[in-house]
Amino acid sequence: MKLPLKVDNAWTRFVAMFSLADLLVLACLWASGFSLGYYSKSAYVYDNLWPHWYALVGGAVTLVLALGWTLRKHKRQKYSYDHYYIIFYGLLCALMGSCFMLTKQLGESSIHQLSLRWKSPIKSLIPPAVSYYFTFVGLSVVYLSGFSYVSLRCDASGLRPARIAFANALHACGLASGFVIFNELEPQRCGLITLGINLLLISMVCLNELLQHVGCHNYKESRDLVFNLLNEERMVFLPRQAVLAQFVGRTDYELLASRQWLVLILGGVLVTLQRNCLLFSPSYLQLMWSATTGYVHRSHLFAPFVLYAAGCGLGALLLMRYTPKLVYLLFGVIQVTLIVALLCIYSEEQSEHCFLFLCLIYATMGVLSSQSLHWLLECSPFLYTELALSIGFVLQLAILEGYKYEANVDDTWTALLAGSVVTLVLTSLAIPVVQWLQPHSASLVDVRNRLLGIHRQSSAGEQTQFWQTNHFLAHNKPPHELQSVRLSKSRIFQQYPISGLSDTNDNPKQKF
C-alpha cells in the first residue's frame, strides 16, 4: 500500500536521522534510564531513601568527566569523538553493578554478624544497595556522552530538537521499564536482566568499533558539513574575537553584542529547574498512586513514569513538525492550567478525582522535558558543551536527592501546595524566556554565530515581476535617454518609451 506523500516524506526524514551508531547510542541511553528506573523503584516504593547518596557519587563522577573532556578538547582544539570509549566505560560500571546484584557473599548470617560487630544495621550493604554506586556512575557517564553524541550527529536541517527529544523519550522509556521490572525481593532476577542488557550493549559497542576500523562506516564525524570543516581546520573552539575577525569587512553581516552566556545561564537554569521540579516529588507520586488505586481499583505504581515516557514520545513527534518555541509555549500554558485545576479539585479523602488531571500533568512534563537538553546542547559554547550538560545533570540529581526531605513532611497538602507553587512560578518565568532568548535551530555553527552577535543582513528577495526583470523596456526614461542593448553580434534590442511618457512633462494629468 502506497503511503500518502506527506506521510512518506515524514517517514523518510525520520529514517534518515539514524544510522547504526546513532541507534546504538539511543539503546545505551535507554539502558541508562533503565538503571535509573531501578533506583527510583528502590527509593520511592521500597522506601530506601536514607542514608544512601548514590546520586551524589554519580554527579561527582559526571563533573570530573566533563572537566577532563573539556581540557582534552582545549588541548587538541578539535572534537575527537571519544563518546563510544566513554560509553564503553559506563557500560562496564553498570555491568559491575549488575554483578553485585547477583553475588551472595553477604548472606543473612553475614549481615547479622556485621551488624553486631558494628552495633548498627547495615541494610545499605546488601548487594542491590552496593550495586547502585557502580550503577549510578555507569548511567551518569552514558547519559553525558550519549546526549552529547546525539547532538553532534545532527545535520543543519533543523531536526536537532526532534533527535534530542527522541533520545530523551528512549531514556524515559528505559526509566519506566526499569521501574516496572525491579523487585527488591528478587535482586538476582533483576541482576540477570541488567547483566544481559549490558553484555549485549558492550558487544554491540565492540562491533561498532570493529566496523569503524574496517571502514564500513564512520561514526566519528557530524552530518553538519560546516561543523566538520571547522573541526578539521581546528577552528571550532576559537574565541569570540577570532570568530568576529572572519567577518570584518563583510557587508552582508552585522556585528552585535554577544548574548551567549546570558542565554545559556538564564535560560538553561530556568528550563532545567522547571523540568525536574515535579517528576520525583514524593507528594505528587503518592497522590498519583492513591488516585490510580481509587480510580482503576488497581495499584499501578508505574503509571506516573509510563505517562511521562508517553509525553516524551509525543514531544519528539511534535518537534518533527513544529518549532520548540511553539511546543513549549503551548504545553507550558497547558501545564500551568492543569496544576491550578488540580489544586482546586484536590481532596485528601477522594484522591481519585485528581486522577485524570495528574495523568495529563505527567504527560505534559514529558513533552516539556527535552527543552532543557536541547537548550544546553545547542546554546552552550562548543568547548563547554559537555560541562554545561553535566552541570544540568548534577542539578537534576541534586533535586532528586533534595526531595528526600519532602518525604519527612507530615502535612501532604502543604508539600503538594509548595511543589505546585514553585512549578507554577518556574513555568511562568520559563515560557517568556524561551520565547525571547531561544535561537532558531539550524547548523551548530549558525546558532553559535547568532549567539555571538553575528547576524546576516536581510537582502531583498528576487524580483519576478515583469517590470522588474525586463531590461529592454524603459518605463521611467524620457525619449532622449533611450539606448540600445547589444546581446550578441546579431541580437540588438532597442528600448522604447511607454505610450504617453513623452507628454508627461507637458501635461502632468496624463500620467500613465
Automatic annotation (TrEMBL):
Residues annotated as transmembrane: 12-32, 52-71, 83-103, 130-152, 164-182, 261-280, 301-320, 326-347, 354-376, 382-403, 415-437
Protein's UniProt keywords contain Repeat = no
The alphabetized UniProt keywords are: Membrane, Transmembrane, Transmembrane helix
- Keyword flag DNA-binding: no
The protein's name:
Uncharacterized protein
